[in-house]
Amino acid sequence: MNKNISILGCGWLGKPLAIKLIEGGFSVKGSTTSISKFDEFKNLGISPFLISLENIAIEIKEFLTSEILIVALPSKNIEGFKKLIQFIEKSPVKKVLFISSTSVYVSNNNVVNEFSELQDIPLVAIENLLIKNKAFDTTIVRFAGLFGYDRKPGNFFKNGRTIPNPEGFVNMIHQDDCISILEKIIETNLWNTIFNACADTHPTRRAYYIKTKADLGNEPPVFAKAENTVFKIISNEKIKSILNYKFKYSDLMSFNYGSYDI
Predict the structure, then answer these.
(1) For the residues of 13-77, what is the DSSP string, one character each?
(2) In Å, what is the CA distance from 21 to each residue of 42, 59, 73, 184, 244?
(3) What is the maximum span of the chain, computed from C-alpha positions, in angstroms?
(4) Burial per residue of 235-256, b for 16 or more beta-carbon CB atoms within 10 angstroms, e otherwise
(5) Most buried residue, 18, 99, 148, 224, by most Cβ within 10 Å?
(6) Cα 40 from chain centroid?
(7) Mind telling me which Gene3D superfamilies this protein's record contains (predicted)?
């Protein structure tokens, strides 16, 4: 396998992923929109590039001199992705790993899998641009709500903010599981497919935020009046079966969210 990887978006998820890939022997190029991060990236062994999807320039050609491109951007800029794809088509990139979100699914008050109904939103359009392109292979990973380390759910609703839909169910995934899953996709060479990635358990929003706030010693949560509960429960069966993956943080109610190590 070619050991060169480019990560477009070395932020909360992309940076620790880059660190793990470097530990695994990969040479990693990483993008940021802030030149002030260059020294940090270099110290971590990441080759830094200043790239903005909103203003892609010719410099992205050098960034794309890798076999695998991982896209870890929150941007929903369809036109920016169209321009990016034009550069990918002319580059050495043969495989794209696109980090998406389970927010693409319609809330149908049921369990949803990779074949369930999708919303008509920009993220779905971007997924389609990538997966339908025959110039490169694409795998899409739809992550549930992200948490871990400095991103603690007990801090999500602060200062008395009302938490809506309290009897709905949460779909969450820890940063460690995200990184392990992405690593395993690369290791096993699984392309041209779509995966949901989500912890095994789905407590109600009421139970989850009562616990996560209490674990941090924060104020008790304030919930909206429960009316017309709308939810979706994300199935992770495909990724567990095909990748033979066992989640590190599988039971969302079984650990203390106040721990500095979580």
Answers:
(1) THHHHHHHHHHTT-EEEEEES-GGGHHHHHHHT-EEEE--GGG--TTHHHHT-SSEEEE------
(2) 15, 23, 18, 11, 20
(3) 54
(4) bbebbbeebebebebeebeeee
(5) 18
(6) 22
(7) NAD(P)-binding Rossmann-like Domain
Instruction: Say if CB 95 and CB 64 are below 8 A apart.
Output: no
Residue 31 near residue 7 (C-beta atoms within 8 A) = yes
Cα angle: 178, vertex 181, 187; to 5 degrees: 140
Nearest to 143 by CA among 229, 257, 14, 57: 14
Q: What do you get for the CA distance between the two ends of the chain, in Å?
A: 33
Is the pLDDT assigned to residue 262 strictly greater than 70? yes
Report the CATH number that the domain containing residue 103 is assigned in CATH.
3.40.50.720
Residue 181 in any domain: the answer is: yes
CA 169 to centroid of chain Cα atoms: 19
pTM for the predicted model, two decimal places: 0.96
Distance CA 23, CA 244 (A): 22
In a domain, 228, yes or no: no
> Over the chain, what is the mean pLDDT?
96
pLDDT band at 160 (very low <50, low <70, confident <90, very high): confident
State the residue for tokens 């500095």: 260
pLDDT attached to residue 226: 74
**Distance (Å, whole) CA 148 – CA 248:** 12
pLDDT tens digit sequence for 175-206: 999 999 999 999 999 999 999 999 999 999 99
Rounded to 10 deg, the angle between the 78-89 and 122-131 helix axes is: 10
134-146: per-residue pLDDT in tens? 999 999 999 999 9
Q: What's the CA angle centered on 181, arms 27 and 40, to 5 degrees?
A: 40
